[in-house]
Specification:
alpha/beta, elongated
């Protein structure tokens, strides 16, 4: 402070020394020479007197200024050390009033170093709904320093509140993250909220047992086939796969109201089964079928939909109906439930008849007219994938359960069916898919994508419910996906693209947190050259850890933006008169030479963080592009907190101790 105010200090010193000097050593009025000057030239005498007094002040000021300048030169060589403050107290997730996410320590924004007053970089609740993406190369700590602590923070929030605790879906490819999530829930007192799908487990999951449109399911499967076995520039093959799967799934739903991927595989493999099923259904639906009609009040009271008979439909405003069954009639008589058997001409029968006619038209005028070799090629392309669910008994048991599992209580030793995702999520359960990619990469990706589609459908269906009942407490949902490029789907023509769900995730109260190795990983896993941009913009908060991919480094630098900085430019020029060649040196010389230097300033548009910075980040360091839900925050350094280290200890202290 004294160095910065050295001019004021010099003036104060000059004022004090000058006043003391003039008072101690005044002008000697008894000096004869001064008396003569005063008599002969009073003006000159006054100049001498006041000049003498002025020199006491000016000389002292110049001397003090020189001393201050020398002190400033020495002081600026050793900049003053600001007092370092410790991190603010870390607020445990259980004590937070709303779900928030602490990304890490916040120090200097654009400079790698310790700040005198560090703070926590926190994303509020409204910012979490816009998504968090973590991008980092292998070994940079994106799982241990991001995914583990972030998931733990959210799962611990309101863990004891049955109405507000967070439920969600966890996808991963290594096989250890699910165990970590189970441990997090156990430590939070939520061990019963954990549901896991795995081979040999006690939960089975049928990817086709949902109310998704057959085209959406078929398109997802055909896209997976193309991604697994190589992308083709010819769109015919994906169209053919989609068409075949769509009509086979629709046929199986019309026939039994239930199907599995193993059954679809058998129908695709045998043309005779498709034709025989179409003939059977056309005969059955040629006349209005007999149905059992039950009053709506009795239907809801007796819960007939889960008592072993499914596929009920609305028959008028006050009745429910189902195709006639002797077992159902006996059950109704046994429980004294009023019913009526009659033939129906309702919309359900007309819709089924229209659909079977559409399947018949496809089979007769499209599929059967194809050349045998072309049909064999289409069939072979799709059965290679579908056979994965038929040949392996463990896979078949887990992902192709019989219909009886859903119709009644499972027998001892049989897996339990996965409850509807809507019920599972609204009760605060966390569903995890523990299918390591090492077991079967293609199958793991396929099952993960189809489970993700069911989850997204359940999330989107919350939107009208939330709008209709704003007074109700709606819990937040969490989507966590490590190695996200293994499960990502996107595209303008893809009806199941992730960007469609994440664009509406804020309204559905979904908190998506994903991690991937690089933008190039997303780019290679998604169709099209620019579709990765569509997906990347859905995640407003981005964390870039160290990367070894130059494309990712350039893209990250572009996302962080540029700024105008005033930079100095120097110009040196040399001139001479009477120039000639020296006979002694053989070089050009001149009798008179001039050298001039000029300095100019111009704005320079440069990266806030250059691409090189992203390749030189240390372990546990990241560059964050945070978003608080209303306004984007400036790009800045963020120092992560690995889950195995003390959260209250500063990152720089951990580095000094060798813990990082």
């Amino acid at each position: 402070m004294l160095v910065e105010q050295r001019v004021v200090v010099a003036m104060l010193i000059a004022l004090g020394v000058g006043a003391a000097g003039v008072h101690t050593y005044p002008v000697d009025r008894g000096n004869v020479y001064l008396q003569i000057i005063e008599l002969r030239n009073p003006t000159a005498f006054l100049l001498l007197v006041y000049g003498y007094a002025t020199l006491w002040f000016t000389s002292t000021f110049f001397a003090a200024s020189m001393l201050g300048s020398l002190t400033a030169i020495i002081a600026y060589r050793r900049p003053a050390r600001a007092k370092q403050r410790s991190l603010p107290a870390y607020v445990a997730p259980e004590q937070r009033s709303a779900p928030t996410l602490v990304l890490g320590e916040r120090h200097l924004e654009t400079t790698n170093g310790r700040a005198p007053q560090p703070s926590w970089l926190t994303i509020p609740q409204r910012g979490l709904y816009t998504g968090v993406m973590v991008i980092g190369a292998v070994g940079t700590g994106k799982t241990s320093a991001c995914m583990f602590p972030y998931t733990d923070q959210l799962l611990r929030w309101k863990a004891s509140d049955p109405e507000r605790k967070i439920g969600g879906l966890v996808l991963e490819v290594k096989g250890d993250f699910c165990q970590q999530v189970h441990g997090m829930l156990t430590r939070a007192g939520r061990a019963s909220d954990y549901t896991e799908i795995r081979l040999g487990g006690d939960v089975c999951y049928n990817p086709l047992h949902n109310d998704l449109d057959p085209y959406a399911v078929a398109y997802a499967v055909s896209t997976l086939v193309n991604n697994l076995f190589g992308k083709s520039k010819e769109p015919f093959w994906q169209q053919a796969y989609t068409d075949l799967l769509k009509f086979v799934i629709l046929l199986r739903r019309l026939a039994d109201g239930y199907t599995t991927l193993a059954e679809v595989y058998r129908y695709v493999l045998e043309d005779g089964k498709i034709e025989a099923e179409i003939t059977k259904l056309k005969a059955a639906l040629s006349q209005p079928p007999e149905v059992v009609v039950v009053p709506l009040a009795n239907y809801e009271l007796q819960d007939l939909a889960t008592a072993g008979w499914r596929d009920w439909f609305q028959e008028g405003p006050e009745h429910m109906a189902r195709q006639y069954s002797a077992d159902l009639e006996s059950h109704l008589q046994e429980h004294a439930i009023p019913y009526e058997v009659r033939r129906t001409k309702g919309t359900a029968w007309l819709d089924r008849k229209h659909q079977i006619e559409a399947v018949d038209r496809w089979f007769t005028y499209s599929w059967k007219r194809l050349d045998n070799r072309l049909r064999s090629s289409i069939t072979e392309g799709i059965v290679v994938f579908l056979s994965l669910f038929d040949e392996n008994p463990a896979v078949h048991r887990t992902f192709c359960p019989p219909r009886s599992v859903y119709a009644s209580a499972p027998k001892p030793g049989e897996p339990k069916p996965l409850p509807p995702l809507e019920e599972l999520l609204e009760s605060g359960h966390v569903l995890a898919l523990n299918f390591p990619v090492g077991l079967n990469p293609g199958l793991a990706r396929a099952v993960g994508v189809m489970l993700k589609l069911d989850f997204q459908r359940a999330v989107i269906q919350r939107i009208p419910k939330i709008a209709a009942h704003p007074e109700r407490i709606w819990r937040d949902l969490l989507f966590v996906c490590d190695e996200y490029h293994a499960f990502a789907t996107v595209g303008e023509t893809d009806p199941t693209g992730d960007e469609r769900t994440f664009a509406l995730s804020r309204q559905a109260r979904l908190i998506p947190i994903v991690a991937t190795q690089s933008i190039s990983s997303l780019r290679s896993a998604l169709p099209g050259d620019e579709s990765w941009r569509t997906l990347l913009q859905c995640f407003r908060t981005k964390l870039f850890l160290a990367t070894s991919d130059e494309f990712t480094a350039r893209a990250a630098a572009d996302l962080c933006g540029r700024r105008d900085r005033l930079k100095a430019h120097y110009t040196l020029s040399e001139g001479g008169q009477s120039a000639h060649i020296s006979l002694l040196t053989g070089r050009a010389t001149a009798a008179k030479q001039t050298v001039s230097a000029s300095k100019s300033y111009a704005p320079h548009h440069e990266y806030i963080f250059s691409p090189r910075v992203f390749t030189e980040l240390q372990n546990g360091q990241a560059i964050a592009l945070p978003y608080d839900g209303l306004n984007p925050m400036p790009p800045q350094f963020c120092y992560l907190k690995p889950h195995y280290l003390d959260v209250q200890t500063s990152y720089f202290d951990q580095v000094a101790r060798g813990q990082l």
